Amino acid sequence: MRGLTCVVALFVIVNVVGNAAARSKSKMPNQPIKVYYLPPSPPCRSIIMAAKVLGVELDLVLTNIMEGQHMTPEYLKMNPQHTIPTMDDSGFILWESRAILTYLVNAYGRDDTLYPKNPRLRAIVDQRLNFDLGTLYVRYSALYVPILFHGDEYNEESAAKLDEALGWLNTFLDGQAFVAGEDLTIADISIVVTITNLDAFGYDFSAHENVMKWFERTKKALEPYGYNEVDAAGAQILASFMKKD
Ligand SMILES: N[C@@H](CCC(=O)N[C@@H](CS)C(=O)NCC(=O)O)C(=O)O
User: Name one Pfam family in it (predicted).
Assistant: First the structure.
């Protein structure tokens, strides 16, 4: 009986260790995750930085939307909405950068700091991501897309709307280091690309002191994960569109 107990105990130990090994193995994709991208694209930049933070290898597929490479039948079959970034993780296709960010942490995060599992902490990250998607990035685009891509004049009304959103971001940052609390999360990685663009375009956000300080903090935190070569460099490409004529 004693012998049997030992055998059972040994089986349990081997199984637990085996499962743990399988779990830690399954933390990395079987093959590099394909991401269809273009270097200046802000949502693509956030994905590339997040993957670097997670240590997940990407297979970056250059997709020049200026030349219609996102409108081919193959691309439309994969993503009928024809946007970049689009992710292909061994056949699992996903677009919308914030959905990709949450997927990457859920699937491959070694811990949950970037996207906490605690429902209330996670809800704050989600709120910030939704604020970015539905408000900040929309207002940024309303001001800058016409300037960058249609050569339009600076629109004061759109600028005031953007500044109002930056004011809200400034308030979120009252008394905390990052946009969703004391730790860097995917909400910071998503929001920082917009702020990097504003910085590259010479937008004066000095009235928003918390945003200024957070921007410096976040740049520093992301420096080892491609802030300069991915995010700042991409924003400079966009800024060069503006200076063209
Ligand atoms: N909300 C989307 C926006 C994606 C998006 O609009 N990407 C632009 C490039 S930055 C694009 O693909 N434009 C081409 C198109 O929509 O046809 C995300 O965050 O992924």
Answer: GST_C_2
pLDDT tens per residue, range 78-126: 999 999 999 999 999 999 999 999 999 999 999 999 999 999 999 999 9
Which residues of the chain are under the pLDDT cut of 70?
A: 1-26, 243-245
**Whose structure tokens read 């991409």?**
234
Quote the ligand 1 centre to 169 CA distance (angstroms): 23
Measuring CA to CA, how many Å separate 180 from each of 69, 124, 146, 190? 36, 6, 31, 12
Cα of 210 from ligand 1 centre, angstroms: 29
> What domains can you pick out in the chain, each with its CATH number?
33-108 (3.40.30.10), 119-243 (1.20.1050.10)
Q: Is the CB of 65 under 6 A from ligand 1?
A: yes
What atom in ligand 1 is closest to the CA of residue 133? 1
Q: 143 with 158: CB under 8 angstroms? A: yes
The pTM of the full predicted model, rounded to 2 decimals, is 0.90
